[in-house]
Structures are given as structure tokens and as C-alpha cells.
């Protein structure tokens, strides 16, 4: 089984904030001791950290759930609970993180050591020391901790390489990579020898260096799922230059120019923007019979499909076996890389809007619906968060929650919808009677 994995779906949950405490001063010589309950600690965040030592998302194959620790509860003497440590999750360079529900890109992690908070921990609940007022100097009110953010994420690895090798199976891409770098890809005389992307570093004679990725062979119809399909086409999206390797010996019985057109069509079908990347045509296997004649015919067909004012792609005849023409090819590739800027991988429309961790003033505070059993159901982010953070073990906290609902206009809205005295009202799994 291949140990390479470039997609994963995981669930992350940040830590819940610690509950606030209800406590009172009880010193011998303090006759009117007031509230002394401290606040809960902050819940831990879930943080992605880029680790350049990782090359695959294999770690996420069996471990798909990541949960940060909750904050400590508040303590007596007004002491705050300890905040929880963040949960650090290591990911390889080139990992794109998407929201599984919306499909929007949350972040693109490409630099070693880069950090990004994918789920924020909840704040700690307030202790009763926070609720003391002149009217109520000894409140028995505290808050539960705020729930941590929970979300489902899609991880997608796109290898970081300056140059991508593309072409039909068995045109010599893996052999070329093994000759120009120290990489040791599997090489065999059959189709789809390469079933995972291979990466290697090239150093030219002039001292330039760049990363090259050998991508599994494409075939006609790959963008529709034929062969290995689009499984590895994503890895070419980060490259700045494409080396289009073609078997000029036509040893497979195919026409080299038709191969060239077919591969470009698959790249265009997968992502039109791939055609913006400059291409160098690598005429491989020039040590074989008929290669020179086929190259002449290839150049004629290529020129016939370009206008006289259009610049033809560079063509470099090479032989990976005899190492003929490799130095010239690598120097030209390095020169083209120097002139080619980074390509924008994602449009603004692909990116998730900057998250706001608070209440949206424009969003409705609550919504009312009716269940099949005639129970009134209250929902809404603001209302549900207030409910979750209410300590229902204390009568004063329950009364405070009732006042908050009334202040939000819940009572009036229920009456307007036809609620009567004694009707059941549900928030989550909690039910109570409506009192008119």
C-alpha cells in the first residue's frame, strides 16, 4: 500500500472555557464577606503548524478527530482557572485547508513554521465576583464556559515544486528525474509505474537550484477520471514552469504531436489557468531510431498551429539514458524560472471571509419554529450561546436567563406567534413552560 496520502477529511474541536465559580469570603474578622468566585480559564485553540519534515497527510488517515483541552474552572479567593494549552497539529508544506461545509479555502500553509488557528477556544465563564452590584452585593450567579469552535475540515496537499514534469506514461519522466536529481523513483517498463508524486532538487552547472516534481502519468480522459484521473493533477498547480516530456521515438506506437495536444487538453480541462504557465517541450529518447525524423515532423506540425507572430515553445532534444542535452535543458529551465513570477493559486471568491468571533449585530438574535409535537422551538447562535453559558444549578442564574430572553423580545415574539400559557418551549434538549 502506498504511504502517500494527499487528501483527508478531519474534525477539529477547540476547548470549552472553564466554568465560573460561586463562592463567598468567610474570614473570621470579615463580617460582611462578599462574593469571591473567580472566572474560568480559556479553552485551548486547535492550531495547524507547518512542518517541512512531513511529505504526506498519512498521519490523518487513522487520526481524524482533534480536540483541544478545556479551561480550568474558576476557584475561590477570586482566582481564575488556568487556561488550556493550544493543541498543535503538524501538517506538511503545501497544505490547503477548506471548510467541508462551504468548500471555501480557510488558509494555504506553505512556509515552514507557519501557524494558523483553525478552531478558537471558548472564553471562560465569569464567577460571581463579576456580578456584584450595590443592589445585589452577594450574587449567586456564575456563567458556564463558552463552547469551543467545532468544524469539519478538508485537507488537500499540493506539493511545493518550481517545475513539474508532465506527459504520458512511459515517456521517461521518472528516469529523467532520477538522472537530474538524487531522487530514486520507481522505474519500470510498464504504464503507471509512478503512482505518487516524486520530488527532487536540481543544481545546474551555473549553481542555480530548483525543485522538480515528477507527476504520475496522464492519459487521455484523465480530467474525466480515466486512469489515475485528476488524483494528482492538483500537484502541478503550485509549479511555475512545466516540462512537457514527449517520447520522440514513438515506441508506444503513438504520434508525438498528438500526445502533446492530448496532455495539454487534459491540463486545460482540469484548470484553464494551468495553460498560463510557460512550457518547455522535452523531446526525450533521442538516442532511439526514428527519433530525429519524428522530431522534424513534430516541429513542422507545431509551427503550423502557431501564427507567425506567436512565440513557439522551446524544444530541447535529450536522452535521459545517455544524458545528452540535459545541461542545456536545465540551464534554460533555471533561466525561465528567474523570469516567471509566482502564480495566484486562489481567487478571492475561493477564500473564506475573515471570521468574526462574536455576535453578528445584523443577524437575528433568535428564530422561532414549531415542532411536530406542537412544542415551540427557539434557535439562533446568540440565544443558544446564552443558554449554554447559563448555570441552571443556580436559581439566580435561571432568573437572569429569563430576563435576558425577555430583553431579546422572545416573550413578545412567542405571543405574536400564538403561544399560550402552559405551552412547551424547547431550546436544544431543555424544555420549559411558557408563562403568559
Explain what the structure shows.
This protein is an alpha/beta fold. The chain is 19% helix and 21% strand. It has helices at 173-180, 256-270, 291-304, 326-339, 381-388, 395-408, 410-417; strands at 7-13, 46-50, 65-67, 87-91, 95-99, 105-109, 115-119, 150-157, 163-166, 198-203, 209-214, 241-247, 279-284, 314-317, 367-370, 376-379, 424-427, 430-433. The strands form 4 sheets. The protein has a 6-stranded mixed β-sheet with strand order 10-11-9-12-13-14, sandwiched between helices. Strands 3-1-8-5-6 form a 5-stranded mixed β-sheet, with no helix packed on it. Residues 188-194 and 222-229 have low confidence and may be disordered.
Q: Briefly, what is this?
A:
The protein has 436 residues and is α/β, with parallel strands linked by helices. It has helices at 173-180, 256-270, 291-304, 326-339, 381-388, 395-408, 410-417; strands at residues 7-13, 46-50, 65-67, 87-91, 95-99, 105-109, 115-119, 150-157, 163-166, 198-203, 209-214, 241-247, 279-284, 314-317, 367-370, 376-379, 424-427, 430-433.
